[in-house]
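This entry is listed as follows:

___
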Amino acid sequence: MKDTTLRREIIEELDLVPSIDAASIGVSVEDGIATLTGHVPTGAQKQAIGKTVKRVSGVRAVVMEIEVRPIGEHLDADDEIARRAVEALRWGDSVPKDTVKVEVEHGVLTLTGQAGWSFEKAAAERAVQKVSGVKQIINQIGITSAVSHTNVRMSIETALRRDAAREAKGIQINIDDRAVTLTGRVRTEAERDAARRAAWAVPGVSSVVDGLSVEP
């Protein structure tokens, strides 16, 4: 079983136990060895977590790095939030590896670093949205790829031929840094949506302004 699959099954198993606050537990898996981090209010809950994870099929060993923090202590310290955010980024789908940095101050989480695609920047933000203790997310991840006018037009033309069986001659493209503005005419809303999606799909595009009009 893949480590990613095993990790997902462990989290699902923890979610099924009412007495366990799975949101405060970090789970990582390597070669079937599950490492658990985070904090719980009682030793009994820590033991319950260990027993729950051990019974998941495929778990070869469990490393318990969970702290017991009695209720009343500050459970959302910035260092804990940062640790959980880094873990979420590590396992997030489409998140660029080793290029996104996390900074947390008073519960405000700031993402910095570089991504090659706009969807990777968005994926990093989605990955940390459910991290407990986060009050606000500031996404300052930069896009490294340069935006090419030719690439944008080719992407739109390909999309329209596939989705709407026509060329993109009626569409004008303006690029300012990594911002793309589309103007001109299309025949249907489907063509308009296809052109907008195609522009977003080009590496390096950070925003798309839709100035297209629909004229059948």
Remarks:
- The first strand starts at residue 25 and ends at 30.
